[in-house]
Amino acid sequence: DAKTTQPPSMDCAEGRAANLPCNHSTISGNEYVYWYRQIHSQGPQYIIHGLKNNETNEMASLIITEDRKSSTLILPHATLRDTAVYYCIVRTSRAGTASKLTFGTGTRLQVTL
Amino acid sequence: DTAVSQTPKYLVTQMGNDKSIKCEQNLGHDTMYWYKQDSKKFLKIMFSYNNKELIINETVPNRFSPKSPDKAHLNLHINSLELGDSAVYFCASSLLGDYNEQFFGPGTRLTVL
User: Are B6 and B32 in contact (CB under 8 A)?
Assistant: First the structure.
């Protein structure tokens, strides 16, 4: 699985959009970009994943650059409850196999009033 | 309607003891996992079971023995506990298939004195 690079920390004002970048310059054609987050003292929570098209769900949007070497997770209206460590994970997806998530150090997002 | 549950939430024990952590999921998933998060917050996979069969076994000391009585349960037994085993242990589950999101339990904080 390709390595990812994320800033160690970011701040965001409540109500504003939080844009969390991830660099994955060695990503290969069959590797997906996944985002999970871990709110303090809780288990990680899946947010979203994508291959090359932009994706949106009820939690967030995922923007993947055309060359797929980087992506941005967007929380459109951050709230205090979004304060967490956000992990960008790149991995190959194969049907019929178990998923071995490899977590890096992530980005600690602090949402402030 | 807890999805993935773990017991106990906290476990404090002496070095050399044997202890177990239990995990249950009611999501109808066929694959379960154990992850370890150490004091530096690095989260690493330990084991994965699919339909009671071991399918992922990372380099984990053989003092750790997972047991899956059925596909809804994956317990972790640890023999001869050591100081370095102190960590938060997370159970997770998913459907088999590398692209399927994993659902994590609340974690068990193990402290070895």
Answer: no
Contact flag A95-B99 (C-beta cutoff 8 Å): yes
Which amino acid belongs to residue A14? E
Instruction: Flag the least confident range among A36-50, A56-70, B45-59, B82-96.
Output: B45-59
Amino acid letter, B67: K
Q: Which of B96, B99, B100 to mutate to test the interface with A (most CBs of A within 10 A)?
A: B99
* A101–chain B nearest CA distance, Å: 7
> Is some CB atom of chain B closer than 8 A to the CB atom of A94?
yes
Which of the 8 DSSP states describes residue A68?
Answer: S
pLDDT tens digit string along B1-60? 679 999 999 999 999 999 999 999 999 998 999 999 998 888 999 988 888 888 888 878
